[in-house]
Amino acid sequence: MEGLMQRLPLSIPMIVRHAERMHSRKTVTTRTDDGVKVATFAQVLERARRLATALRSIGVGPDDRVATFCANHQEHLEAYVAVPSMGSILHTLNIRLFDKDLAHIVEHAQDSVVIVDKTLWPAWEKVASRVSCVRCTIVVDDATGSGPDNTLDYEALLAEATPSGFDEDIPEHQAAALCYTSGTTGLPKGVLYSHRSNVLHSMTVCLSGSLGLHESDVVLALVPMFHANAWGLPYACLMAGADLVMAGRHTAPEILTGLLVQHQVTFAAGVPTIWQGMLQSMTRAKGQLGKLERILCGGSAVPLGLQQAYHREVGVRLIQGWGMTESSPIASLSFPLRAHDGLAPPELDGVLNSQGRPPLGVEVRLVDEAGKLLPWDGRSVGEILLRGNWVASGYYLDAAPEKFSDGWLRTGDVASIDPDGYIRICDRIKDLVKSGGEWISSVQIETSLMSHPDIVEAAVVAVAHPRWGERPLACVVPRADAKGRLSKDILLDYLRPLVAKWWLPDDIIFLDQLPRTSVGKFDKKALRERFKDHPLPS
Amino acid sequence: MEGLMQRLPLSIPMIVRHAERMHSRKTVTTRTDDGVKVATFAQVLERARRLATALRSIGVGPDDRVATFCANHQEHLEAYVAVPSMGSILHTLNIRLFDKDLAHIVEHAQDSVVIVDKTLWPAWEKVASRVSCVRCTIVVDDATGSGPDNTLDYEALLAEATPSGFDEDIPEHQAAALCYTSGTTGLPKGVLYSHRSNVLHSMTVCLSGSLGLHESDVVLALVPMFHANAWGLPYACLMAGADLVMAGRHTAPEILTGLLVQHQVTFAAGVPTIWQGMLQSMTRAKGQLGKLERILCGGSAVPLGLQQAYHREVGVRLIQGWGMTESSPIASLSFPLRAHDGLAPPELDGVLNSQGRPPLGVEVRLVDEAGKLLPWDGRSVGEILLRGNWVASGYYLDAAPEKFSDGWLRTGDVASIDPDGYIRICDRIKDLVKSGGEWISSVQIETSLMSHPDIVEAAVVAVAHPRWGERPLACVVPRADAKGRLSKDILLDYLRPLVAKWWLPDDIIFLDQLPRTSVGKFDKKALRERFKDHPLPS
User: CB-side exposure of A172: number of CA atoms within 13 Å?
Assistant: First the structure.
């Protein structure tokens, strides 16, 4: 028997209705070249309704992909609202990818319209020359000077358009947004979010036990809006009525810190590199950050030293978030529990520096290579599987059955989980070194090597070995002034007390730099390929 | 095009999985006759799984109604979990109703199994003799002595049963629970909650901008578990991992206050009468309530004086919640906004004493008699309509089309809404007095009359009038020692500065007591009937 409850689709238009009714006076602030631009939610949402009319007028229909090639700013938020609310699909492009990867993604998605920042035009032009699907380009006026030829002006389009009704009856499983993974193991794959997945994910972001966004919050979203749904923050701010601050195309640490101070930000989110870069300016601003309660840090592993430095120098704790494009992205958060009240710093560090616990709506399994469930004992190590309403069930035009197992996403991350549910990632499964039937974590050796004062970067990859199957090979970049005094033996002596004896790399190679992927991660695939025949000392 | 996201039903088993995995060590505490009983979530949920097996073993199948006739305690929570999770329907009976109303409800719902507290057996026996559908009665052992004949013992059933799997694939629109309205305007009506409505309602209860239940909370649920879903607290506590404290059959203010102190409760919820009764003991306990952050008060209008007294004497603010059985029940909450920071007490009182703002997921409309939308200007008065995923779309076996209008629930409450979305209820629509085409609020005249020190109770009803259509008639109960000195003229003089001149009652009748409904509200229907031919002075 079915319940007798109303059935309203969980949709972006539902979030819009709530924001328009309940939070119309809250604000969106964008850093521009000559100051800041502030608009109320009412204004932003009215402009989003104009944008929908404008997009319809240039022929955008249901299911059509509208891409953005933009920094974080008000217009990008307007696209986040308008495109899904008219039944079309928002495709956020990563502005830092190589042209050829972008061209592949745009062609694969068959984007018909692209919204581009004027300052990103030179980068976009190179992509545009490689693709044939884009029939219309809209330019956001984020710098002085006239726009390029054969494009539409964002503001001119909005000025001509009347505010449009959104599709209030849109089915909740309708696709809302498309975001491609960075594809470190192959071609980028498209994750197709639904209205329902976005609403439930954003609700979880607003749960008190999760990020807890609240009407009294002022949120600085430093995570790019093309980065996995901007961690859910755009929709979550509209839901919660939190003021949203964005940096536009500005990345200088002093400017970002200035935004935190001037707007009395309470919650900020960004990748570790950003917070690393801002540490000095944040330390100087310490006394002026009175409202800053929490910083979310994710996208790659958060160095413990960075967390400790922020706690010590800035007086704010970095919370680690873990997830991936396929999980919308929030899959776990390293908030402490009430049981940790009064915990001493070393033990508390162990909590905060974990990948954290899954929030309501995300289910986690730990399995061995045969798919057998492993216990959450803090010691057993296996692959993490994810399940939930905001976890991908497949990729856009790419079934990729190897990534999905009986309704669960295979994350490719290898971890332990402790009895409280805190996840601790050891490595990517493809980066593990399998030596004599046992796993060696490349990440742990890398972390240990990088803790040496003379080492800037380190990457550890597996090399085939006749007896052990695989053995670890370390590639390191020494500091410029340390080249003469470092040697393989010195580093092995340094590692000896830090890792198990049989984890010690069989060889250490000194390089001037490590190859990187288009999103800036160490390109271990390239290293494995380059050193696949490297002779290991017997 | 549909998104490519996993689809897991929003269901009670989903909440159970989360609670078992993430919050197994959190606790449920029940006040018993000789102390308290404490169980972990793991224990409670394991017992709920046993209860499901036991219920199956006595023939309970999908869609079967299992009623509870219980106080707030651990076993009641176990039924909240087990019954919906096995695909059956939990029917919470209001233990304070008259036998004949209960019998009607039980027969209407066709409850086949009832779980009854041993101490409530005498009350239940009278109901049982009037109904024929109940084929099995399970007795919860909440007092010493043996149970009645021909019943099953709850603990014995659980001891024999093995923990059962729940229905993880239950469709989210499946009915989960049934709760009848008190039926002040006619026969009680059944509201049939779905799994989806319960999950979304409980998520909203845990939103930071709503009640914000959190893992660090200790929740005292004084609201009865038969009262509209216990305001969502049982499922919300399991979701959030908040410790739950319940008072069992104990209602003495000192005992309830003792629970707040002993268990360092952070959040408590109950009806105004309860908080009124506890004011003295709470005032005495003031210094020991250090963790108590928020009190939710709802179920009937919260007197401003009570809110002021708690703020002044106890140091805690009462937040008003508004809603109804049909809205699961949370439809609005009177939390202040950031814009109210630093507001002086009189203005802040105006916020806290309103019915508050609808949270995410509840949509509100204000309409006039013709159904035309009225503005949220704080002055326009009309009926409130509600829409949302936890708002009823009909009643169980009773279409009641007059209550539903184009997908919206007609609440029967008349109110204004201010530009910030704060609702201020004036009256029930059926209690309004329509004089010369204008509405007079019976509630406002009653409140004014009851502010007179010699008046204990007052009810104002409409009486037919040849010229004005209707005019207000006041029925008052004076203090025993004031009978001699009160008169109609004295009260009219007292009212004159408090209400509009044309609102003054045409007559005032002195009674020894006012008739009440089974849930203790003034029975205005009875008063209207009794005085329908009362001659009004011309």
Answer: 17
CATH number at residue A140: 3.40.50.12780
Positions of chain A with pLDDT under 50: none
SS3 percent helix, strand, coil of chain B, rounded to 5, is: 35, 25, 40
Percent of chain B whose predicted confidence (pLDDT) is above 90: 80
Cβ of A3 within 8 Å of Cβ of B173? The answer is yes
Q: Please tell me the predicted confidence (pLDDT) of residue B400.
A: 87
Burial of residue A151, with CB atoms counted within 10 A of its CB: 0-12 exposed, 13-18 middle, 19 or more buried: middle
Cis peptide before B359 (omega within 30 of 0): no
pLDDT at A464: 92
In a domain, B348, yes or no: no
| pLDDT over 90 at B132, yes or no | yes
Domain assignment present for B52: yes
What is the CATH classification number for the domain harbouring B453?
Answer: 3.30.300.30
Instruction: Give me the active site residues of B, please.
Output: 181, 326, 434, 439
DSSP assigned state of B437: T
Q: How far apart are CA B488 and CA B499, in angstroms?
A: 16
Nearest chain B residue to A405, by CA:
B6
- B-chain residues near A191 (CB < 8 A): 4
CB atoms within 10 A of CB B495: 20
d(CA B431, CA B453): 24
Residues B196/B389, Cβ–Cβ less than 8 Å: yes
Q: Which residue in A has a C-alpha nearest to residue B338's C-alpha?
A: A216
Q: Identify which of A470, A464, A428 has the alpha carbon closest to the alpha carbon of residue A446.
A: A428
B290 domain-assigned = no
Nearest chain A residue (CA) to B241: A209
Chain B (405-424) residues lying within 8 Å, Cβ to Cβ, of chain A:
407, 409, 421
ipTM for the assembly: 0.92
CA atoms of B28 and B246, how far apart (whole Å): 8
The last residue of a domain, from among B156, B174, B196: B196
Give the gap in angstroms from C-alpha B239 to the nearest C-alpha of chain A.
7
Please say which residue of A148, A175, A196 terminates a domain.
A196
Residue at B292: amino acid letter = L
- For residue B357, being part of any structural domain is answered with no
Q: In this complex, is the C-beta atom of B213 within 8 Å of any C-beta atom belonging to chain A?
A: yes
> Rounded to an integer, what distance in angstroms lies between the CA atom of residue A17 and that of residue A97?
35
How many domains are contained in chain A? 2
Distance, CA of B247 to CA of B224 (rounded, Å): 10
How far apart, in whole angstroms, are the C-alpha atoms of residue B235 and residue B177?
12
**Single pTM value for the model:** 0.93
Closest CA to B87 of B13, B184, B190, B149: B13
Question: Which pLDDT score is estimated for A538?
Answer: 65
Interface touch B5/A393, C-beta < 8 Å: yes
Per-residue pLDDT of A353-371, as tens digits, reads: 999 999 999 999 999 989 9
Asked whether residue B259 carries a pLDDT value surpassing 70, the answer given is yes
Residue A438 has a pLDDT of: 83
Partner A, chain B 156-185, Cβ-Cβ below 8 Å: 171, 173-176
pLDDT for B309-321, tens place per residue? 999 999 999 999 9
Substitution target in A202, A208, A238, A417 with the highest count of B β-carbons within 10 Å is A208
Task: Name every residue whose Cβ is closer than 8 Å to that of residue A450 and which is 6 or more positions away in sequence.
Answer: A456, A457, A458
The CA–CA distances, whole Å, from B289 to A42, A338, B40 equal: 41, 18, 24
Give the residue numbers spanning the domain of B103.
12-25+40-196
Contact B21 A363 (CB under 8 A): yes
Question: How far is residue B406's CA from residue B59's CA, in Å, rounded to a whole number?
Answer: 40
Say how many CB pairs under 8 Å bridge A and B.
190
CB spacing of B387 vs A8 below 8 angstroms: yes
